[in-house]
């Protein structure tokens, strides 16, 4: 059972007082927006012999406005004889929706700014990356250069080998390693840029020193 009278008239107040004599709330067994509608429409507890309304009004007034706004149920606009009631809540909801839309617009603007900033940073990173020198593939090689016999001048042989100059070739340390019968081989290190120096071509250039070199072998080959 739901009260539906006009509380702005003496007849409506009497009907409400009679209704509340047997009911704790305007609708159902818990406070709802229907109670808030009547509460707002009354504005204050009516004077006179309306004891049940006065008891109900004090009870509803004991709740804060925030608590009352959280109650469920439906508002009763028909009881609002001039006073604003909870029926105005949908309009408030619309206002809230507008606020949400506005915040949404701000979020969209922030997202657009964030996307623009990300693009700028990415472009700056790509530009910086493009200016960096490309990594150069290099290899470390140890060559075994063998002489004809034990009478070969090993110092001159090493000098001849080191005289080879190629773009991307860097000679390193060298040493003489015994191979037997008093013969020693020249073991020499070098670093080459893979795109510029051909190992086969380098070996051929060394073997061109026929007075000193019998053969050239690769003892070790490592990518750097």
Automatic annotation (TrEMBL):
Keyword set, alphabetical order = Elongation factor, Protein biosynthesis
GO cellular component annotations, sorted alphabetically? cytosol; eukaryotic translation elongation factor 1 complex
SMART domains in alphabetical order: EF-1_beta_acid, EF1_GNE
| GO MF, one annotated term | guanyl-nucleotide exchange factor activity
Start and end residues of each Translation elongation factor EF1B beta/delta subunit guanine nucleotide exchange domain = 138-224
- Which Pfam family name is an example for this entry? EF-1_beta_acid
In this chain the Elongation factor 1 beta central acidic region eukaryote domain maps to 102-129
Give the record's family classification: Belongs to the EF-1-beta/EF-1-delta family.
Per its record, how is this protein called by name?
A: Putative elongation factor 1-beta
């Amino acid at each position: 059972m739901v009260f539906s009278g006009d509380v702005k008239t003496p007849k409506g107040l009497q009907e409400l007082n009679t209704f509340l004599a047997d009911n704790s709330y305007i609708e159902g067994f818990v406070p709802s927006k229907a109670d808030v509608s009547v509460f707002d429409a009354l504005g204050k507890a009516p004077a006179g012999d309306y004891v049940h309304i006065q008891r109900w009004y004090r009870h509803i007034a004991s709740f804060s406005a925030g608590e009352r706004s959280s109650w469920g149920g439906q508002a009763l606009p028909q009881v609002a004889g001039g006073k604003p009631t909870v029926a105005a809540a949908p309009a408030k909801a619309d206002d809230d929706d507008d606020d949400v839309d506005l915040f949404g617009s701000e979020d969209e603007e922030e997202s657009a700014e964030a996307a623009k900033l990300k693009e700028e940073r990415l472009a700056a990173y790509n530009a910086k990356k493009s200016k960096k020198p490309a990594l150069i593939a290099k290899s470390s090689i140890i060559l075994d250069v063998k002489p004809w016999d034990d009478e070969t001048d090993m110092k001159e042989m090493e000098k001849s080998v080191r005289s080879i100059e190629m773009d991307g070739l860097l000679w390193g340390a060298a040493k003489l390693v015994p191979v037997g019968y008093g013969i020693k081989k020249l073991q020499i290190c070098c670093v080459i840029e893979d795109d510029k120096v051909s190992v086969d071509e380098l070996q051929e250039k060394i073997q061109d020193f026929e007075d000193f070199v019998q053969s050239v072998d690769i003892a070790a080959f490592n990518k750097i």
